[in-house]
Write a structure and sequence with these properties.
5-stranded mixed sheet, 46% helix, globular, 171 residues, 6 helices, alpha/beta
Length: 171
């Protein structure tokens, strides 16, 4: 009888976990929709800069070759502390650039990134001009670009699997 009770307990908890995952997923989708409803999902605004490695990066041009992840974040953002390590990990294999808004001068942001061991290339946006142009109101926000167009937008905490899924869907 105890093994039957164990199976019921396991099944009960499995159902509870699946239900919670579904509820969180639906809430996340609704929140993404609400936070990004005013963001244009067609052509992406221009985004280009000389990066820390001295290379010129043009997100729109790069998106014609492969999907590009544009990660809007800030050094002071609590949710970014959870997302930035995932973004850093993904930057090893995917075209990705960060845009740090209202995070101080270039050296402060570079020092912060070194301390956290973030490996992604970053464009510092101390006055948040780029963020305003892209209509960013929440950090973190992740755009996926393909062929110069926005294919996906997500805000708040997301997982590496969530970002990967959006990249793969953009292909």
């Amino acid at each position: 009888m105890s093994s039957t009770k164990q199976r019921r307990t396991f099944r009960y908890w499995l159902i509870q976990i699946v239900q919670m995952v579904l509820i969180v997923t639906v809430i996340s989708i609704v929140m993404d929709w609400y936070r990004t409803k005013d963001i244009p999902k067609q052509e992406a605004p221009p985004l280009s800069s000389v990066l820390s490695d001295g290379e010129y990066f043009d997100a729109i041009a790069q998106s014609h070759e492969q999907p590009v992840v544009v990660y809007f974040w800030a050094t002071w953002c609590p949710a970014c502390k959870f997302v930035s390590p995932s973004v850093s990990w993904l930057s090893d294999d995917y075209a990705l650039v960060g845009v740090s808004g209202s995070s101080g001068p270039n050296e402060r942001v570079a020092q912060f990134m070194r301390a956290k061991e973030y490996r992604f290339e970053n464009i510092n946006d101390p006055s948040s001009d780029i963020m305003r142009e892209w209509k960013i109101s929440v950090t973190p926000t992740i755009y996926i670009l393909r062929n110069g167009e926005v294919t996906s937008i997500t805000t708040g905490i997301t997982t590496p699997i969530g970002i990967l899924a959006r990249i793969w869907l953009a292909r």
